[in-house]
């Protein structure tokens, strides 16, 4: 069984459990549910660097990356560094994240926050809003076109932006629709974990220009970004490269400074 199938099997059980624990009506009463959300797409459009910096403790491909940072410091550091937004992994079993991480990030910075999660149910989008997210991720490999439509429309009705992630042409073709804000190309093959920036380069011309283009995963140098920018990418999602250091915020600051030169 590949890792994505394993993650999704576990996620179905987790989501059913959570639904019973905290009903939608309770999520909708959260103070953050009424909050005015921030636009990550606009921040990326206005930026010359477009960095979405991720909080990532561990991953299926790299095991432990960093267990010692606290989310408060990382969020504050990323904001000071000049990131456009922050991605917060909320999956516990495979990434060591949680919704509390999202809440802590929300309390610690004014950056647009992406809930980085394996979303398969409308309930998780309502959770995202209740815990302070501005953006949700939809992964085309997990969803039918009809599901992408339903879930993205729900997100938009809650004033959340949608980053749709693809890995290949087939996923891209089935996903294009007006209820998406950003199209992300994941450079990591989720079956083999091999990373290749060629994936972003090859798919770029197939992405209509009305979407903000984001390149995700395996970006570890300023040079990598400079090779992706001519392909129309404005946003760059970076996790491990910052989280594996002794100070995620400081490493993002140095990276963004070099990118501006
Ligand atoms: O990172 C993984 O190993 C992984 C495995 C299976 C599904 C998703 C996975 N990662 C989620 C992400 O998309 C990345 O955390 C994100 O793009 C940042 O990637 P990186 O800069 O390479 O840490």
Could you characterize the architecture of this molecule?
- With 261 residues, the protein is of the alpha/beta class.
- Helices cover 43% and strands 16% of the residues.
- It has one domain: TIM Barrel (Alpha-Beta Barrel), CATH 3.20.20.70.
- The chain has twelve helices and ten strands.
- It has an eight-stranded parallel β-barrel, surrounded by six helices. Strands 2-3 form a two-stranded antiparallel sheet.
- Strand 6 (135-139), helix 7 (145-157) and strand 7 (161-166) form a beta-alpha-beta unit.
- The mean pLDDT is 97.
- The ligand O=C(O)c1ccccc1NCC(=O)[C@H](O)[C@H](O)COP(=O)(O)O is lined by residues 3, 54, 56, 59-61, 186, 188, 190, 193, 216-219, 237-241.
- Its EC number is 4.1.1.48.
- InterPro entries: Aldolase_TIM (IPR013785), Indole-3-glycerol_P_synth (IPR045186), Indole-3-glycerol_P_synth_dom (IPR013798), RibuloseP-bd_barrel (IPR011060).
- Pathway: Amino-acid biosynthesis; L-tryptophan biosynthesis; L-tryptophan from chorismate: step 4/5.
- It is an enzyme of class 4 (lyase).
């Amino acid at each position: 069984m590949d890792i994505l199938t394993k993650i999704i099997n576990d996620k179905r059980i987790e989501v059913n459990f959570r639904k019973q624990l905290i009903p939608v009506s309770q999520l909708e009463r959260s103070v953050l549910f009424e909050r005015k959300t921030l636009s990550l797409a606009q921040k990326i459009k206005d930026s010359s660097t477009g960095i979405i910096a991720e909080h990532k403790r561990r991953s299926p491909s790299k095991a432990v990356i960093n267990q010692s940072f606290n989310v408060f410091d990382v969020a504050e550091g990323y904001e000071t560094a000049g990131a456009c937004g922050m991605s917060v992994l909320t999956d516990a079993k495979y990434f060591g994240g949680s919704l509390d991480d999202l809440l802590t990030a929300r309390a610690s910075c004014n950056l647009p926050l992406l809930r980085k999660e394996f979303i398969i149910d409308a309930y998780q989008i309502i959770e995202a809003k209740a815990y302070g997210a501005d953006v949700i991720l939809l992964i085309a490999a997990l969803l039918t076109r009809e599901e992408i439509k339903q879930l993205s429309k729900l997100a938009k009705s809650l004033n959340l932006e949608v980053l749709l992630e693809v890995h290949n042409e087939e996923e891209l073709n089935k996903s294009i629709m007006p209820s998406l804000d950003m199209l992300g190309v994941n450079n990591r093959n989720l079956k083999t974990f091999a990373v290749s920036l060629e994936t972003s380069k090859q798919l770029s011309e197939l992405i209509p220009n009305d979407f903000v283009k984001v390149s995700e995963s395996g970006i570890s140098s300023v040079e990598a970004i400079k090779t992706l920018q001519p392909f129309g990418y404005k946003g760059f999602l970076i996790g491990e490269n910052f989280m594996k250091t002794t100070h995620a915020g400081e490493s993002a600051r140095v990276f963004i400074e070099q990118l501006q030169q």
